[in-house]
Amino acid sequence: MPFVQRVLEPKFLSRTSLRDENGKPRVTDEELQAVTNCTLSNALRQLASLVLLAEDIFSELTSQLEGITERSKCARTKIEFIHELVEKYDPKIVPVPEGSLSDFALRKIHYTASNPLRKELFTADTRPASLRNLYEKATTDRLSASILDQLRRDSQHSPYLL
Q1: What confidence tens digit (pLDDT) does each residue in 141-161 have?
Q2: Are 60 and 129 in contact (CB under 8 A)?
Q3: Which of 10, 84, 129, 134 maximizes the CB count within 10 A of its CB?
């Protein structure tokens, strides 16, 4: 199941209480208009949240596309270099060694390609910003829970710590 990277707030537009803690009505008249005003203001808040999330998504997409552009430029220069080598290549100049299958079998050193192994492809720096924020929030929440466990007087531990 994928992570919820972005949350649109407020979730419930019309969820409001027209009464205070004591049960007295906050609005004496025109309750429908009060609920409508609250719903409209929450809809505006939700649209503002949507705009911020869209900006975050587009900035992340822009950075990914910039990386793709850099890699494609690098691939283009390699392709142009290989194209120049192929254009200059003359098969009549290259000597073809003569030999038999037994001569080839006696050979102990064969051609091997040297492609280095790429390491550390998935590091904290390569994570998207939204995942980094989730990770930081999770680690700080866990740390704060462990700090609170130290201050408990009943020597119990939080069930949320691993």
Answers
A1: 666 666 666 666 666 665 555
A2: yes
A3: 134
With the C-alpha atoms ordered 125, 129, 135, 141, is the resulting torsion angle positive or negative? positive
Per-residue tokens: 81: 């270099």
Question: CA 25, CA 115: separation in Å to the nearest integer?
Answer: 74
Give pLDDT tens digits for 19-76.
778 878 777 777 778 788 889 999 999 999 999 999 999 998 998 999 999 999 999 9
Q: How is 114-147 classified by DSSP, letter by letter?
A: --PPP---S-GGGS-HHHHHHHHHHHHHHHHHHH
**Enclosing H/E stretch for 46:** helix 31-88
Residue 72: which region, alpha, beta or left (left: phi > 0; alpha: psi -120 to 50)?
A: alpha
**Centroid of chain to Cα 158:** 30
Domain boundaries, the chain: 7-12+27-92
Helix (H, G, I), strand (E, B) or coil at 157: coil
Distance in Å from the first CA to the final CA of the chain: 20
Locate 76 and state its tokens: 């283009």
Quick check: pTM over 0.90? no
Token pair for 151: 């201050």
